[in-house]
Structure formats: structure tokens, C-alpha cells
Amino acid sequence: MNLSLNFFRTGAARKKGVKPVRFLCAFLMLAAALSMTGCSRGYISSYSDNINRSSYSLTGVSAVSANFNGKAKLYAEDMAVPGEGTLLDIGPVKAAGLFDLEGGRTVIENDITKKIYPASITKIMTALLAIKYGGDMDQMLTASSHVPDMEWQAQKIGIEKGDKMTLDQALHYLMVYSANDAAVLIAEHVGRDYDDFIDMMNEEAEKLGATQTHFVNPHGLHDEDHYTTAYDLFLIFSECLKYDKFRELIDLNYYSTVFHDKDGNIRAIEVPSTDNYLMGYVNPPSKIKVIGGKTGTTDQAGSCLILLSKNAEGREFVSVVLGAIDGNEVYTAMNRLLRQERGYPPQE
Prior knowledge:
Elements: H1 24-37, E1 42-45, E2 63-68, E3 71-76, E4 95-100, E5 105-110, H2 123-133, E6 140-142, E7 164-166, H3 167-176, H4 180-190, H5 194-207, H6 230-240, H7 244-250, E8 254-260, E9 266-272, E10 289-298, E11 302-310, E12 316-324, H8 327-338
Parallel strand pairs: 1-8
Antiparallel strand pairs: 2-3, 4-5, 4-12, 6-7, 8-9, 10-11, 11-12
Helix pairs in contact: 2-3, 2-4, 2-6, 3-4, 4-5
């Protein structure tokens, strides 16, 4: 079996090629080498059916009614809302927002309620449902014929019918490398079937108040009926951040694991993050730490990015940039947003 896979370059992303490993001993040598280098933000997972992990629970929040374009919606009491932020020119993007998590305020807002294609930022909802409803992270998933059935340009790791990996492994491939085939694998497992999972995505969005959102797939490959807003993505991302598992996933700059293919052979694949901040290709503004997030790019959506970051005082923010003209511009625009975190909140 030919294990060679290709990475697809998106915008300004500079990605390393996937390194196929033909023998398990080679993989173990790689694991040992990486453990000695101190690559603290990467993660190596060995193939095992019996790894114990702690469970993750949602911290409950009370909710109040707020007015949003004439419609009553539910928000957490300290949740940021549209209409209270400042307009800031961050460049040629379709929408952008900066939200103060600690203070529950919208700091910057540019068209945050405008309907826009989200591309692979969609995968934050896929990850959320997997964490909330997927059950045991160590349970084994088996790929159906639908998992590899997508357009050839789509970013994927090459999962084939009959391949097996744990839910935890699939989630890492989904969030670190943005693998679209991992998204389908997860969807078919967490839902009763693929279509049921899409219904779950839309139901969850509505529960979170993301009522300007409509999903038709778990990965974000383009469809005219698949859309959201910068504000809705903030609501979904904020929910994701309540889970330690999600925070673990977005903080990794690479992921390496082994799993079984359809013939029972061992496959070992290492993938880098699609986030240029985590890869060290782009630096955030001084005194700002990028924790992690999710990228997304299609021709129709442009280059998109949602991030969790913190300022020098340790205050956490969520920032969203949608519809940048290319990969360079999405990071340029994002840095303009991140600079607004310095010295925030302003001293009275």
C-alpha cells in the first residue's frame, strides 16, 4: 500500500509534507527524538484501544433574553453582544470581530452579523459535538465508503474505507490538520448517520443563539446553503472553550499517531498545524499570546481564522477574521485586531 500523501497549500500557509512511515520502529524512533527536543505544543499518540482519559464537563451558565435585530435570543449574562463594539479598519476582509471573554464585551465589530461562508472554521462545531456527544474518546471508528468520497482538492489525510482509528485520533486530525475525511468519519459516528449529524449541528447552533447559521456538511467545503456569521462563530467557539479537550486540540502545532488501515497494517502519519501562528511562520503583536484556533479557506469563503489569545495581563479574547483576500492578508488583518488587546480594558 502506498502511504504517500500530499499536503495542499492554502493562502500563506507553509506546510510540511506528510511523512509516511513504513515500519512501526521508525515511528517509535521519531517519537523518542521528538520527546528529547522539547516540542511542548505537539502531541504524539500511540495506537491503543485502552487508554484511560478523564471526562470533560460543561460548566453551566444562566441565560437572559437580549434583543438582536428585533428577535429575542438567549445569551449568557456576561456574553458579548452585537452593537457595543467599535468599528476598526483592519483591511479588505468581509467581517471581523474581537470579543473580551472575561468582561463579556464586543470590543471590535465589522459586519459581525453578515452571513458569510465559514470554510473549515465549520469544524469547531464538528469538534464540539464529538466532545459533547461522542462518548468514549478511545472507542474505535471504522471508515465507510463515504469518508474518502470528496473532491480531490480537499485537504485530507487519505482515510480509506475500512481504516480504523479512535475518536480521539480523528479529532486531532480534524483540528490540527483540518482533515476533511476525518470530519466525515466523526460525523458518521456521532450521529445516527451523516444526515442526522448535520441536523445535530444546526440544532446545537440554534441552542447557542447562533441563529444566523446553517450547516450542510461537517467540514466546510463550499455549498451555497452553508453559511454563518462572525458573531455566531464567536458563540460556537465560546462554547467549545468550556471544554478542556477542545483547548488541548487548538494548542497543538503538530500531531503524530499510528492507526490500522483496512488490511490491518500499521499506518503512522505526522501532520503540522494549519495555523501559521502555532507553526512560527507569523508572529503576533508584542505582549499578545496566541493560544490557538481554527483556520479555513475556500475560493468562495476566502481566508478565515478564529483565535483564542491573551494579553500581557492574562485576559482572554476571541478574534475572528472572515473573507480575507488571501492567506497573507488574513494574518495581517488578525494582527491588527490582536493589537487592540494591549492595554485593554482602558484605564479610566
